[in-house]
Specification:
By secondary structure, the protein is α+β, with helices and mostly antiparallel strands. The protein has a domain of about 45 residues. It contains one helix and five strands, in the order E-E-E-H-E-E. The radius of gyration is 12 Å and the shape is globular.
Length: about 90
């Protein structure tokens, strides 16, 4: 599922964040090395509050990127996998 900033409203995306590029859906700061997320790469971010994580990710990422995401369980952990698309 992809959110489009212009057509869909996102949940509140400022909960517990120190900087706009940080993620903190469950109160623990997560730093993403955005420059390493190249086209075709993916990252799994474990979280309990997945709607908040998704909202924060879309708010923090560079605005010209296209991202696909899926909520899933990986290695016994609940979270979201994000893929950077073309």
């Amino acid at each position: 599922m992809m959110y489009k900033k212009s057509s869909q409203a996102l949940p509140q995306a400022n909960k517990n964040r120190v900087q706009k590029t940080d993620l903190s859906p469950d109160g623990i700061r997560i730093l993403i090395e955005w420059e390493k997320l190249t086209i075709g790469a993916s990252i799994f971010v474990p979280a309990i509050d997945t709607p908040e994580l998704i909202a924060q990710f879309y708010d923090a990422m560079p605005k010209d990127w296209e991202i696909e995401h899926r909520t899933r369980i990986e290695n016994g952990k609940w979270g979201v996998r994000f893929w950077r698309m073309l």
